[in-house]
Write a structure and sequence with these properties.
The chain contains 14 helices and no strands. With 377 residues, it is mostly helical. Helix 4 packs across helix 14, helix 6 packs across helix 13 and helix 7 packs across helix 9.
Length: 377
């Protein structure tokens, strides 16, 4: 059965000519203001902005007989691009879409601006540090080495030992403190601990070094330097980070899981061990790894507490111990002859420290992915 629409006398053909022309004009106006720019238009405008500003800065550099101002060129091109994309989007699309494109351009520009120092530092360290990344650098110390040669094995071992001892000290304290604040803490004591953790988060690293030095000077006398002192100083810096990260992860555990465990008659301490901690272990592990990455590059507290030496030292409780940050600092400020050998060792040490931090972050991501709670759909 076919149904046909009834004939209406007010069709477009029977409408007055003036009304038809008005409708066509409105449709034409809407097609101009409600269109959409193609995906290639922003890139074309960006290329046009770059191409228009490049000759201007080249001529200015030639007139002043100097190098071209690359930063000014890129900033001018970005400003011209933002003006062009905002104006064209306002005409073709709408003002709301134009504002959206403008803000998108500003955010992208801010991201690129933030990436410039990061890429510059990474490129500088890699290009200058790879020259000494050889077998001798990872198998020799600086004992009896003057000038060229030598390595940073004693600094690498010292960094790993000091950081490991700091982690052993700070992780249980920070984790138990976070468990107390989330599961048990109420009243003035909990508020006082939270306040102290906030204060410790903002203390300068040199203050932690002075605290560890003063603590050991009370018992062993002034002038003492040991690796364990550096571990204590780093632990003071790690504890608030571990507390804060663990506290946030424990807070994300749903209360329904705790209540279900309590309903089965499980005591609170066992609920924390069997339910709360396994649920949040991925986030806690990530926070711990990030806290280790944060303190492994500290120089000032280790310079005061652990000191520096050119020999291997595997004993945290006896004698000075070299670390990679202090080794980098010492090679840079105490340049000998030839100076290039000392600078190469400093850059190679900095690159080694960056690689260790990157490996720690990769381990944290892998652990977080492996131990993350599996959700079934």
């Amino acid at each position: 059965m076919t149904i046909t629409a009834p004939h209406t006398p007010d069709s477009d053909a029977q409408r007055p000519a003036v009304a038809t022309d008005t409708i066509r004009l409105e449709r034409a106006t809407l097609s101009l203001t409600s269109g959409r720019l193609g995906r290639w238009v922003p890139w074309a405008l960006l290329g046009a902005a770059v191409g228009l500003t490049l000759p201007v800065f080249l001529m200015l550099a030639a007139a002043e007989a100097s190098e071209m101002n690359v930063g000014g060129w890129l900033v001018s091109a970005a400003v011209i691009y933002l003006v062009l994309i905002f104006t064209l989007s306002t005409i073709v699309e709408s003002r709301r879409k134009a504002v959206d494109r403008l803000v998108t351009g500003l955010v992208a520009g801010a991201f690129l601006l933030a990436m410039i120092p990061l890429v510059s530092v990474a490129w500088t360290v890699v290009s200058l540090g790879v020259a000494r990344m050889d077998a001798d650098f990872f198998s020799m110390s600086m004992r009896n080495v003057v000038g060229e040669g030598g390595g940073a094995l004693h600094a690498i071992v010292g960094t790993l030992l000091v950081t490991l001892a700091a982690a052993v000290i700070s992780i249980p304290i920070g984790l138990f403190t976070a468990i107390y604040l989330i599961e048990y803490g109420r009243g003035r004591l909990a508020r006082g601990i939270t306040f102290l953790v906030d204060v410790m988060t903002g203390i300068p690293s040199i203050v932690a070094g002075l605290f560890a030095y003063a603590l050991f000077a009370l018992f062993l006398g002034p002038g003492v330097r040991m690796g364990i002192m550096g571990s204590i100083a780093l632990a003071v810096l790690m504890i608030p980070v571990v507390v804060r990260s663990s506290e946030e992860m424990l807070r994300l555990v749903p209360n329904e899981l705790r209540e279900a465990s309590y309903a089965l008659g499980v005591p609170k301490w066992l609920t924390i061990v069997k339910v709360v901690l396994p649920t949040s272990i991925a986030g806690i592990t990530t926070g711990i790894m990030l806290s280790i990455s944060r303190v492994i590059g500290e120089t000032a507290p280790l310079l005061i507490t652990a000191g520096f030496t050119a020999s291997m030292n595997y004993d945290l409780f006896n004698g000075r111990m070299q670390t990679l940050p202090v080794f980098t600092y010492n090679q840079y400020v105490s340049q000998g002859i030839p100076a290039e050998a000392y600078l190469d060792r400093a850059w190679a040490s900095a690159l080694t420290l960056i690689i260790i931090v990157m490996l720690l972050n990769l381990v944290a991501r892998v652990i977080a992915k492996v131990f993350a709670p599996k959700s079934s759909r």
